[in-house]
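Sequence in, structure out. Go.
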Amino acid sequence: MKNKKTAVLMSMILILSLVAAFGLRSFMAPCIHEDGSFGSCHWAGEALFGLSLLMAGQAILGLFLARGRREFFLCIFCDAILGVCLPGLLIRLCTMATMRCQSIMKPGVWVLMILMGGFSLTGFFLPGSSQGKERKGKT
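Output:
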């Protein structure tokens, strides 16, 4: 990868998305109900886990593909917005503020998604994150 700044940003996004995926299975996991049933917060955690893996895959592709880095940054930014909206807005969580999904999962996911969104927005507007100069010379 020619541009080291975009590589650093993609690497940070990859690390944060893996932390989110791992965290949603361990320290940021949603509530466990006493009767063993799944609440809607469980499904919010599942959706966020899948979204985190998607973002990790996009970051890996963005690291190794020479063209389309700006598009990967834009996709990751849109995924980050979705990740902020999922817990509580699109998929409801438990109503008590002391529940694990409200007190640990939601704020943790918000922090990670906002950081990934910020890194992706920075990468999108970074000069040279797309190989546009090379394309203009070849046409």
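Check: The CA atoms of residues 7 and 81 lie 22 Å apart. Residues 132-139 have pLDDT under 50 and may be disordered.
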